[in-house]
Every structure is written in C-alpha cells, then in structure tokens.
From TrEMBL:
<dbReference type="Pfam" id="PF00512">
    <property type="entry name" value="HisKA"/>
</dbReference>
<keyword id="KW-1133">Transmembrane helix</keyword>
<keyword id="KW-0902">Two-component regulatory system</keyword>
<feature type="transmembrane region" description="Helical">
    <location>
        <begin position="6"/>
        <end position="27"/>
    </location>
</feature>
<keyword id="KW-0472">Membrane</keyword>
<feature type="transmembrane region" description="Helical">
    <location>
        <begin position="176"/>
        <end position="201"/>
    </location>
</feature>
<feature type="domain" description="HAMP">
    <location>
        <begin position="199"/>
        <end position="257"/>
    </location>
</feature>
<dbReference type="InterPro" id="IPR003660">
    <property type="entry name" value="HAMP_dom"/>
</dbReference>
<dbReference type="InterPro" id="IPR004358">
    <property type="entry name" value="Sig_transdc_His_kin-like_C"/>
</dbReference>
<keyword id="KW-0808">Transferase</keyword>
<dbReference type="Pfam" id="PF02518">
    <property type="entry name" value="HATPase_c"/>
</dbReference>
<dbReference type="InterPro" id="IPR036890">
    <property type="entry name" value="HATPase_C_sf"/>
</dbReference>
<protein>
    <recommendedName>
        <fullName>histidine kinase</fullName>
        <ecNumber>2.7.13.3</ecNumber>
    </recommendedName>
</protein>
<dbReference type="InterPro" id="IPR003661">
    <property type="entry name" value="HisK_dim/P_dom"/>
</dbReference>
<keyword id="KW-0597">Phosphoprotein</keyword>
<keyword id="KW-0418">Kinase</keyword>
<dbReference type="InterPro" id="IPR005467">
    <property type="entry name" value="His_kinase_dom"/>
</dbReference>
Amino acid sequence: MRLSLYQKLAVSLAVIFCFICALVYSWSKQLELNSKHHGEQNLHLALAEHLVQDNPLIKEGVYDYEALENLFHTLMLLGPAFEFYFVDENGKILTYSAEPGKVKRTHINLTPLKHLIANPSATPVYGDNPRNPDQQKIFSVAPVFNNNTLQGYLYVIIGGEAYDTSLNHIKSNDSLLLAAIWLGSALVFLFIAMLILLRFFTNPIQRLAKDVSKIEAANYSLNDTKLSIYSTQKSNEVHSLSRTIRAMLTRINEQFKALEQGDKQRKELLTHLSHDLRTPLASLQGFLEVLNQSGDKLSAQEQQEYLQVSLNNCGQLKQLIEQIFELAHLENGEISINKETFNLGELIYDCIAKFSLAVEKKGINLSVEPEICDFPVIADIAKLERVLSNLIDNAIRHTPRDGSIAVRVKRGDDNQLFVQVSDTGVGIKHEELNAIFDPHYQASNSNKAGRQQGGLGLAICRGLLKLMDSEINVQSELGKGTMFSFNLPQKKA
C-alpha cells in the first residue's frame, strides 16, 4: 500500500510521539520514585540507630532471638510500613517477624549497609529485600555491639510488603483512574492538534503534486490546465516553490512552442529550398538536353547562349548551396569571429569596386558618404565584407535604372559608428519589415532576380552581425526606397 506524504508524516509523528511520551513518563516516574526514596530514607535514616540505643534488648547484645522477634512483631504493628531484620556480621538473617515462607533470602549483601553507615548523605541507597530476591529497597541500618564486639546489624526495610500492597490498592481507586483518563485525553488532544497542524503545512505540497500530475496528464501543456493559486508571501517556502515550479513549467511550455515553431519554419525552409534548387536544375537539365540532342542543328550563337544560361543556372545553384551551408553554420554556432583593427573606408571602397560593372550596366549611381571615409574599426573584416556585399547586391537588385545607392558612415554615442546602405528602390511594405530577416522569406516586392537568391542573404547578414555584437535595422517606404543600418565599435584614439 502506497502512503501519501501526509500519511507518512502522520505515522512517523505518531511513532515519535508515543516514544517521547513513554520516555517522558518513564523518566518522570523514575525521578518521582528517586525523589520519594531520597526523602523517605533521609526521614527514617536514624530509625535503626534509635531502636538500638533505646531498646536494652538490642543495646546490650542480642542473645534472645525469640524476644527480639516479638519486639519486631510489635514494632511492625505500630508501623506497618517497616520490616525489621537482625543479621549477623556476615549478612545472615538471624531473626525477623513474618509468616512462614514470606522471607525468601537467608543472607543479604552487607556492602550497601556499610556504605550508608559510612556515608549517610549518599541517599538513596538500596539494599536487598529479604522477601523478594529480585527487588531492592531503601532501608535504615545500625550496627549492634556487645562490649565493643560487633554482633550484627539491625536492618529496617522502609516501605515493606504491607506498604506496597496498600499503595497499589490506592493507585487502583477511581480518583487516580480519572486523573489518568484526563491525562490520556490531554495527550490525545495534543496529538490530534499536531496532526491538524501538520495537515495545514503539507496541504500546499499535496496541491502542488496534483498540479504537476495534471500537467503531466496534459502532456506538459498549460493551455487547458487549471492550476491552483498560491500565496505571494515570500516567507512561505512551499508557496514560493509552487510559484517557481509553475514559472519553470511556463518557460518549458514556451520553449516547446518555440521548438515547434522552429521545426515548422525549417520544414517550410526545406520546401522553399527544394523548389529553388529544382528550378535552376530543371532549366539546366533542359538546356543540356537540347544541346545534347540538337547540337548539330543549332547555330554557334544559339549554342553559346544555351551554354551561358546553363552556366548562370550552375552559378545560382552554387550560390544557393553556399548560402544554405553558411546559414546552417551560423545557426549551429560553428562560425568563429576573428576581430582585428582595420580601415572601414578601404573595405567599403573595395566592396563597391566589385559592383562597378553591375551599377554601370543599370545606370545606378553608387556613392560613399563621406568620400574620405577614414574610420578605424574593430571587427572581423571577412564577415563585414560579406555583410556589405550582401546589402549592396540586394540594393542593386531592387533599385530601378537611373536610381541611386549610398553607403554612409556616421558617428554615434559611446564610440560607435553606424553604417547605412540606402537605395531609391521599390521599398518594402511596413507589415513585412519584421519578417524580411527570416530565412527564405520573399517580400512581395521581390523581382525575378531577387527570387533567385533564395531569400537567405538578409538572414546571413543578421547572423554575422550578431556574432560581432552588432544589430541590423531597416527603414523603408514603399515606392521610395530602403535603408539598412548597423553599428560597429570604433577604435579609440
């Protein structure tokens, strides 16, 4: 049978409570008995000595044991709580007053007697009980001499058999029984109160366990799971733990959703990439089949055109595959950054030089502001060149003939430089600005050339800049142009 936490604690508490009650009761009874014996033995410590000194029969030496037995009988009638024995110097019991068979011992141990005579303040001291071999009693003792010769000891048991019988009878009467019932009732009430208090403290833990079970049954989804409301008191550790677990489960639920969304995006990305890979492959295959089957019927110019288209498709495939691998490395954190100090202006002009033929062919004005762009920066030169090339290429593809593209560098606060790449192209819709950095997202303004890029360029730019502790931003107005900007740390003078 499986027990709940409360039941385990209750059983443990009951066992401990009973053990403590028994221990306290035993200790209190022992303390009470010890105090009682101490008081009684001190009170009657000189009893045996007085009897020896006041009774001529004993004082002058004991020879008439029958007369002494009669004396003991008379004394026991006057004091039923006492038993009188005369023992010799070796501990042998010589005479007493008792019914036949009552006295079980023939000898007693004299060591306690001698100890009490030598140290009267060492009470309580216990000696052998002649009527019970397994019991010891407090006593009074006095030596008996005859002409300075030790004859034996007068041994007086305090609280003898008659006293014990009377005391046991008193303990069994109704008043003591009633007192015992009240004491037991008080202990039971205390135990029940402790169980109720324990229930109060363990109830939040049980509620928490039920909440966790509900969440587990709901496959760790918090959407349709109604959880308990816990107090906001910081002093209550159980409620604090409950709130922490709930916050942790909420965080895990959010991460599950993020993973599901990421998995969905990856599936969509694979779908789009397969389409973009299939398009140039199909075109490449078609032109190669034409060249293979009808090569003799085609003129040299047609063959050259078909080969050029095939080469262009191969170039698109190569670029798309490289972008896929680059984006995968960025997402997996497999690209390292090698920061160094270099001149930003030189890098910008090198990037512009690569696109001089493309802008000249489209009649686009590509400029740098300021023209003398002498700014030392700290970054990864290869990664920054990749970012600038992607942004300039993206601007060229979306800028119509006779448009303009500007690369500007501006100083900012905290020793920062801001690089802007702006164009007078078609622009981007406002509702699409937050999505253009997602892998393979194609804005509605994408032209045919843009569509062939696979939609990975801006995602790669954002990933590379993030590795360099920079952030890319975009501003755009449909039909008027777009501006991308990012920050770079400038080397201190």
